[in-house]
Amino acid sequence: MILPIVAYGNPILRKVAEEITPDYPELKKLLDDMWETMYSSYGVGLAAPQINRNIRLFIIDSKQIFDNQDDEDKGKYSDEPGLKETFINAKIVELSGPEWVYNEGCLSIPKIREDVSRHETVVLEYLDANFKLQVKTFTGITARIILHEYDHIEGKLFIDYLKPLRKKMLGSKLTDITKGKVKVDYRMSFGK
């Protein structure tokens, strides 16, 4: 089932999410719904707070980026061909490598894209969809998507990385999103 994406302005996007246990109600269905929602919204990642669940859960599929890139970009990123994965109760173990800038967007903040600087590499401890403990190192685009989604479970948004003046310049667009004055081709939930 395709779920509505929570829009900027909803307080759930600013909460630190709570850990879950293997007996979380209907977890498999929730994950299936999240994958369906993410793909139908043309996203490459989706965190539970974005579908109004205050839990430490997110999914990513960076393979989509590599599958749809131009020929001249092939081989440009170290993490090609990408990764499709579920992350439960994730914790950052280490950030390393140089920071690099990439133009990011967010399903909860439609029609806004901005350059964000993030570390090249992240070591993450998490539980996969089968609640098996994983400790893995991610780089490149995949690391960026993971860090973007991880921010969601920490109550942080990509616009928080912007300089104050740039964020102020986006003020009216952000207000319009909060008020539901934005058109998107996926289901959104506006208001608080």
Structural write-up:
By secondary structure, this protein is an alpha+beta fold. The chain has a single domain (5-189), classed as Peptide Deformylase, CATH 3.90.45. The model has no long low-confidence stretch (mean pLDDT 95). The strands form two sheets. It has a five-stranded antiparallel sheet with strand order 2-3-4-5-6, with helices on both faces. Strands 1-7 form a two-stranded parallel ribbon. The chain has helices at 27-40, 63-67, 140-153, 164-169, 171-178; strands at 5-6, 45-47, 57-61, 84-106, 109-127, 133-139, 188-189. Strand 4 (84-106) and strand 5 (109-127) form a beta hairpin. Its cofactor is Fe(2+).
Question: How much beta, percentage-wise?
Answer: 25-35%
Instruction: Provide the domain count.
Output: 1
| The CATH H-level homologous superfamily | Peptide deformylase
- Average pLDDT value? 95
Span between termini:
22 Å
Fill in the CATH topology. Peptide Deformylase
Total beta strands = 7
Tell me the name of the CATH class.
Answer: Alpha Beta
Indicate the structural class. Answer: alpha+beta
Please state the CA-atom Rg, rounded to the nearest Å. Answer: 16 Å
Strand line-up of the largest beta sheet: 2-3-4-5-6
Summarize the structure.
The chain has 192 residues and is an alpha+beta fold. It contains 5 helices and 7 strands.
Short key terms for the protein model shown above:
five-stranded antiparallel beta sheet; single chain; Peptide Deformylase; 192 residues; two-stranded parallel sheet; alpha+beta; 32% strand
Blueprint of the fold:
Layout: E1 5-6, H1 27-40, E2 45-47, E3 57-61, H2 63-67, E4 84-106, E5 109-127, E6 133-139, H3 140-153, H4 164-169, H5 171-178, E7 188-189
Parallel strand pairs: 1-7
Antiparallel strand pairs: 2-3, 3-4, 4-5, 5-6
